[in-house]
Amino acid sequence: MRMLLNRRRFIQATSAVAVGAVSSKTAYAASQSSQELRVALNGGEYAKACIEAYVKPFEAETGLKVTPISDEVTEAQLNLMISTNSVSVDVIPVGASMDLRAAENGYLEKIDYSIYKKQELDAILTFTKSEYSVGSIVYAWCLAYNTEKFPHGKLRPTSWSEFWDVSKYPGARTLYTGQYGSEGPWEQALLADGVPADAIYPMDIDRVFASLDKIKPHIRKWWSTGSEIQQMMHDKVVDLAQTYDGRATVLRNEGAPIEISRKHQVLTWEGWGIPKGSPNKQNAQKFIEFITRADRQAAFVQLMPYGPANQNALKLLPENLALQSASHPDYLASSITMNHKWYAEKSADGTTNADRFMQRWNEWVLE
């Protein structure tokens, strides 16, 4: 999922450690020790945080050897490994879209929830749990604004209808591009047009673009990467932005004049899963259960600016840090959980809703 990849690059270095390790054919399945696990951890600083919060404590508790792979696993790589019977990794990060396709394509093993403690399992946000993956991090699209342009004591934009109100809240604006279809300024456009948060899905695509017509002349740029939006806010190129919550949080923590509105933030998430045919799926199940515990997720959040899927993790964090999490209970009531299933639904001609958005956007943005 492009949104996930863009956001992840925010916290990744350009490390090429073990590049190709997850996609190469190896004799791993035949030679692997039952006391070893191979785990893909994405890359850069994210992988380093996973090693400290997850891998080292798991090895200490279980005595099992974990080989971390600082690399991403794409669906194409996963499909290749499975189709050629050369699965060389036991645990991988799983985005919401990959999880949806797991049942249809046979990508992943089912999660064994019988080994989870009830208090841990009950605390993991329901929308991040499925048959094939367990949630780990939660993040959001949210509204951010420059506090020099909108100082304390003056009117401040805190909703998407106010973002759209250029008369009352003048200033340069930016929204995320819709060129990828499965994510864009879609939910925000409907909210700005008065659609209630609990009635966003199924989306009225015509209404989305009618709303975007109103704001289009006032958008300085349709951004496409996390680094781009962070730079725009840092350089004060825009006064109001649709942004990833983590990008804005980092800038604010560094002293930039940025404030975040969590009202009607749009949530998405990433979890962990086991590739179909994993050579060591029993220990892989144990690893995923371990790293989704509250104490492990709390340890991870202190290293990386993500919200934990396990709500009990927030109780183990300092209040100021917990309040930076998209998954904090104070924000969930007014949040919108991204409906990945709706985006993936197909019409009679096989076109998904995400495809329809992408096609419509490519025509609209050139008008």
Description of the structure:
With 367 residues, the protein is of the alpha/beta class. The chain is built from 17 helices and ten strands. The strands form two sheets. Strands 3, 4, 5, 6, 7, 8, 9 and 10 form an eight-stranded mixed beta sheet that branches. The longest helix has 19 residues. The protein is globular and about 65 Å long. The N terminus is likely disordered.
Key attributes of the depicted protein:
367 residues, eight-stranded mixed sheet, two-stranded parallel ribbon, 39% helix, disordered N terminus, alpha/beta
Write the layout of secondary structure elements.
Layout: H1 2-10, H2 28-31, E1 36-40, H3 44-62, E2 65-69, H4 75-83, E3 92-95, H5 96-105, H6 118-123, E4 134-146, H7 160-164, E5 173-176, H8 186-192, H9 205-215, E6 219-223, H10 226-234, E7 240-244, H11 245-253, E8 258-273, H12 281-291, H13 294-301, E9 307-308, H14 319-322, H15 329-332, E10 336-337, H16 340-344, H17 353-364
Parallel strand pairs: 1-2, 5-6, 5-7, 8-10
Antiparallel strand pairs: 3-8, 4-7, 4-8, 4-9
Helix pairs in contact: 3-13, 8-9
